Structure formats: C-alpha cells, structure tokens
Amino acid sequence: MGPSDGKGAVDTVEAAPAKINLALHVTGQREDGYHLLDMLVTFTEAGDVVRIRGAAEDSFSISGRFASELLQSDASNNLVLKARDLLRGHVQKSGLTPAPVAIHLEKNLPVASGIGGGSADAAAALRGLIRHWQLEIDDNALVDMALMLGADVPMCLASQPLIAQGIGEEITLLPQFPQLSLVLVNSLKGVSTPHIFRLLEDKQNAPLPAPPEDQGQSWLSMMDALRNDLQPPAVKLLPEIGDMLSMLHSARADVARMSGSGATCFGIFSDWEKAEAAAASLREQKPGWYVQETRTIAGRAS
C-alpha cells in the first residue's frame, strides 16, 4: 500500500495534460438537461503537474502561474482532493486504509479555460495515487469514479487522442492519430459555459464523421470540415475569442478554433518551428495573455 509511516521521501509525479477539443459537435440534449456531444479530443505536453509524497497527515498545496485563483477559493472543493477522498473511500470498502499523503498541484494552465484543467488534475491525482499507494483498481470501477468527478475526467484518464460521445463517457481511442504542433492562446477573460449553451440556437447538429481507416492524416485533412458548435455563441459573449482566432490565422495556422466551451483557442501548425515562431509573435503582441506552444501526445498503437 505504499509508505504508512509518513516518512516517505520519494515523490510520485503525474502529468495533467491539457485537453484540447479539436472538434465539438452538439448532437442533442437529454431529458435531464445534459447535452449530447461528439468530440474529437487530443492532449498536449503542456499541462499541470501533480506531486504526491507520503506524509504524517494529509495536506494540499498549490503553486504555479495560475495558483492564485485556486488559492482564493475553498480548497476543499478542489477536484484533486475530491479524487483523493473518492479513491481512498473505494479502497477502504475492501478493508485497507491508504496512508496519508501530501499532494502538491503545480497550476500551469488557466483556470476554467476550456482545456480540462480541473478534470485533468483530478485524473492525474487518480493515476498518481494508484501508483503511490500501489493499488490494483478494476478499470470499470476507475471509470465510474472518474465520471463521479466530472464528465471530462474519464477522457482525461486516457490522456491520448480519442473520440468522446454522449456526455463524454463513451470513449473510442484513436491509436493512429498523429502528434500535432499547436499554439494555445487565452486572453485570461472567462466565459460562462451555461450561458454559452443557453445561446446555442441549434442543439440537433450533425455528429462527427465516422473515423477514417487512416485515423491520422485523414482526420487532419478533414479538420476544416469539423467545427466547435459552441464557438459562435462564445464569440458573442467574449469578442476576444474572435480576436484570438484572427491572430492565429494571421500567424499562419492551418486550423484555428476554440477548444471546448472556451475561452482558450488553438492553432494547428504544419511544423514545430512555425508554432514556435507564431507563439513568439503572439506573446510579443499580447504579453499579458496566456500563449503556449506545445505538441500533442500521439496515439498509442496497441
């Protein structure tokens, strides 16, 4: 079960990659109000970091560029701690008591920015604690716990290219999907997800096309035909989203789109050097914005 005396000195480090919705199609709405989605999702090398260490008692700390927003809120509501408590409670049902842990979150991603920060942190906490406590958890039980933490958490557990359907729980991995060079941009102004959905005029849109046999380059050639149905209402709420998209296009992005419910936008570039140059230019133009060049995590063939 890992160290139980609180003297463990080795950190368990788990990456929490940013989640990028390359496409998000709203295909319907359930009776309970949840929207049905078809999403093409990938994850990036940029992200938060969760560090876990054995301790005499549980503790939680936060650092990083975007730590201040979380430090001003009630830490007990943080998804990392909810993940810890949920996993510990699951293990305790079998008669075992996982040892106390000191968890540190390095918050590098903007908060509430449409790139899965909190969900990615929760998924990283689950993965890291399973390794730290040396647990064996049934896959179905783990997915159930993840879904209890949020609709995005199961896909963040996978942290590789995938299609997510339903409310996000129906996942199909894309093992042949290639690595992409991206630039992420966020003006650091928030936008209300519920408000965006209220402004969405059509909630019965066409789903994603069927995955091509070549799930890599074929998807990329189809990227212009895909869309984010939440982007138009988000631009109405926050015109800076339109500005970010225009700037990415001007920087020669092959595709520029909003991720998730915003307000982060991404540009796909044909190679890493172009992504680096675009990020440098955008950073010079908007020094107060979040601008990050990054690569995505390629699919893992079985």
From TrEMBL:
Known pathway: Isoprenoid biosynthesis; isopentenyl diphosphate biosynthesis via DXP pathway; isopentenyl diphosphate from 1-deoxy-D-xylulose 5-phosphate: step 3/6
Enzyme class: transferase
UniProt: ATP binding residues: 110-120
Matches recorded under SUPFAM superfamilies: GHMP Kinase, C-terminal domain, Ribosomal protein S5 domain 2-like
Enzymatic reactions: 4-CDP-2-C-methyl-D-erythritol + ATP = 4-CDP-2-C-methyl-D-erythritol 2-phosphate + ADP + H(+)
Keyword list, A-Z: ATP-binding, Isoprene biosynthesis, Kinase, Nucleotide-binding, Transferase
Active site: 19, 152
EC number: 2.7.1.148
Record-annotated GHMP kinase N-terminal domain positions: 78-158
Membrane spanning residue stretches: none
Function field: Catalyzes the phosphorylation of the position 2 hydroxy group of 4-diphosphocytidyl-2C-methyl-D-erythritol.
Name by which UniProt lists this protein: 4-diphosphocytidyl-2-C-methyl-D-erythritol kinase
Species of origin: Agrobacterium cavarae
